[in-house]
Prior knowledge:
The protein is α+β, with helices and mostly antiparallel strands. It has a single domain (9-158), classed as FomD barrel-like fold (Beta Barrel). The chain has helices at 121-131, 135-154, 163-180; strands spanning 9-15, 21-33, 37-42, 46-49, 54-56, 61-66, 71-78, 81-89, 93-95, 98-110, 116-119. It starts with 8 loop residues before the first strand and ends with a helix.
Amino acid sequence: MDIPKEGETVQVHSYKHDGHIHRVWQETMVLKGTRNIIIGANDRTLVTESDGRTWITREPSICYFHAERWFNIICMLREDGVYYYVNISSPFVFDNNSIKYIDYDLDVKVFPDMSYLILDEDEYADHKKKMGYPEVIDKILRRNLETLLSWIKQRKGPFAPDFINVWTSRYEFNKNMKSEE
Length: 181
């Protein structure tokens, strides 16, 4: 597997279990790229939905992808604090200059005070039936949801207090470097 380099711009492709494209983020700047972790950032990037509709993200965000965890985390930097949107998903692969993963419907919204809501359980149940998610996938997703909730409670990984400051600074540094080129 290729590994993206710091400062490189990549796309993010979200798929569904049946192989259909779900959503594409046009530009995400890589802040860290290893075999296991990609941390990226974007601000006002174009997003294209599977039906062709497009929209632009509203705020800067730091994105965390892991090659062994079945979730990815979007940290949205808003005026009143950091909000997190977590996709329960397959681990990422990096292919053809794109971060790719399968979105498994369940989402977790985390508020600045670290309270959270689990979202889209009905959609998950519906898609599990329609797309035939195997029982082993269901068990893996449920186990990773529990891991994620413990990360939130322990303020681990992207939920750690210094995570946003470190990666926001790195994003600003890389943006400045690009503008000087």
